[in-house]
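Aim 2 progress update. The chain analyzed this quarter is reproduced below.
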Amino acid sequence: MASERANEGPCGVRVEEVSEDELRGLVAMGFKGYTRVKTLIRVYPGRILLLPRYLALADRLKNFEFRKDDIVVMTYPKCGTTWMQELVWGLTRPGNLRAADSVPLNQRSFFLEVDILTNLEAQLNDATLLERFRAACGEAAKPEDGIILQMTQAAPTHSPRVIKTHLTFPLLNCDLLDKCKVIYVTRDARDACVSYHHHNRLISTYQYEGTFHHFAHAYMDGDVIYGDQWDHTASAWARRHHPNLHIVSYEALQQDINACLAKIVSFLRLQLSDAQIREVAEHADFSNMKTRDSKAPLTFSGPVRASEGSFYRKGGTGGWEAVATPALTTTMNSWIEKRSKEAGFSLPLHLG
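Predicted structure tokens:
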């Protein structure tokens, strides 16, 4: 049950604090990382579960000024975001792919709202991050206003920014689609759930230590960070006819990446040959991305629990059957059928 302490957020969206009982219930379910926050919040529309630092940065995120040559990769978590970031970065820089060998992806492509997932004190203790922040934004910039957010704003204008976000359209600038291109990636809910379970175990911000069974139920109830997958995708579905929105599925990319990339090239109005498209596809092949990460590793919004493996796990489809019981599969399939009927679309959604 939600807390009665609900109000209009700083950007006009409705913000609701979860109750102490609900927070304790999530911790008991296995989300041990939530013991380090005083509360969680839900943001409407979409009933999006977020960490409380969102409140301090909501207005800046809502009013973030996108540029006309920005390319925004928007997804629900674990739906192919990192893959699409690398693909788009490569498509816009086909002659400079080797730069990825020494510069990690999250320094070549910006995670717009990552500050809300991060403890400010931890950021202030990261000397390398602060050095990059000061170099990009100057001594007068305030870390509490969002370190990565301000670095995204300050990025040079001579090349297109590739910006990643898991926020939905209502939480971002209303001129986003009128100003720049957005690629929205979807994925089968079962595989996304499995991957998000691993992510929640890996990242100490969440420090999930419960069973997959309990995580899957939290996932279906929208009680994971960023909320319900269908509610998230609904914001893209409602805008599906906008010429600056391209919706593609993780599964379609797996099935025929060159065909998908050709459509993305056309959508972005780029000029690439078939050979260049194949080169970018190979550049962003899972095994190549994993190899590069060992040389120029990603940095995360919180410490990584090495005992849970690595960020680059399998990069495939069909992982649900290996971890779910028949009873859980029946429950998940019933939920998928119900949510599909309610929303008017099925996942994975592919309109590209």
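The beta strands are 2-8, 14-18, 41-44, 48-50, 71-75, 110-111, 162-165, 181-186, 245-249. The chain is about 45% helix and 10% strand. These observations will guide the mutagenesis experiments scheduled for the next reporting period.
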